[in-house]
Structures are given as structure tokens and as C-alpha cells.
Design a protein that fits this description.
Helix content: 10-25%
Number of helices: 2
Largest sheet: 5 strands, mixed
Oligomer: single chain
Radius of gyration: 20 Å
CATH topology: Translation Initiation Factor IF3
CATH superfamily: Hypothetical protein apc22750. Chain B
Strand content: 35-45%
């Protein structure tokens, strides 16, 4: 009984807590302190699907992972903008979108004779958007 609850807890927590992640990987010269930052709120941060028209400096890469594989980029723009506003970025240039398979997750239990009593298997594909975090040059 206790193990069933444990497996159920893991499955529910994986489902609700890990649906989407926004990861920022800074370049070596990234500094959070940026005196020329002019954005007043997270809503001003830009998310572009093509190269910015103005001169810019790439200061890191961004990876957005949708573990359900059902969302669109529009569903996550709020989270992306808030994350980039905290890092004092002017915007994100999304350069690629792909679907990748994730290794299977398998939970099994056995009795004292070595026979399987419970099993759980999860197969997933995740969507990954990759892009570049940038700051405009003055």
C-alpha cells in the first residue's frame, strides 16, 4: 500500500511540476549588472522568431523545454519574458524548434521470490525551443 502511494506521488509530481522549464545558459562575459537597461516591466521584453533589426549583443542561450509536448511557444511567452526580465535581457531570438524523445522511465517492485508485483512505464517526447538571449547595443 505504501509503495503504491509513493509511485502515485512520483507520477503526480512529475506531471504537475515538470511540465515546462526555461533554462538560461550565460556566455562567459555575461554580467547581471547592466546600467543601460531600459525595460520597466517584463511585458516589454521581446520574443522574436527572426534576427533583430537593431544591433545587438548575444549574452547567452535559452532553452525552453515542454515535457508534455503539447504546448506552443505562445503558451510560455509570459514565463520566458519574466525570466529574461530578471536577467536584464532586451529579448530572446528563437532560432530552432524540435521534438526529441526522452529515455523511458520505469518503476518496478518485486516480492521476495523475485517476481514483479508492480510496474510503471513512461514514454515521452518533449518539445525544445532554443534561442539566443540578447541586449541591444547603444
Amino acid at each position: 500500500m505504501g509503495f503504491k502511494l509513493f509511485v502515485a506521488f512520483i507520477c503526480v509530481s512529475l506531471y504537475f511540476n515538470c511540465n515546462t522549464t526555461v533554462d538560461f545558459i550565460p556566455d562567459a562575459d555575461y554580467r547581471k549588472e547592466y546600467e543601460d537597461y531600459s525595460k520597466k516591466s517584463w511585458q516589454e521584453v521581446e520574443i522574436l522568431l527572426s534576427r533583430p533589426d537593431r544591433r545587438f549583443l548575444i549574452v547567452g542561450t535559452v532553452a525552453i523545454r515542454d515535457f508534455e509536448g503539447t504546448g506552443t511557444l505562445k503558451d510560455y511567452t509570459k514565463n520566458i519574458k519574466k525570466e529574461m526580465f530578471e536577467k536584464k535581457m532586451d529579448g530572446v531570438w528563437i532560432s530552432s524548434n524540435k521534438v526529441e524523445s526522452v529515455d523511458d522511465t520505469i518503476f518496478t517492485t518485486m516480492d521476495t521470490r523475485g517476481k514483479t508485483t508492480h510496474a510503471y512505464e513512461s514514454e515521452r517526447q518533449i518539445k525544445i525551443w532554443k534561442g539566443y538571449a540578447f541586449r541591444y547595443r547603444k
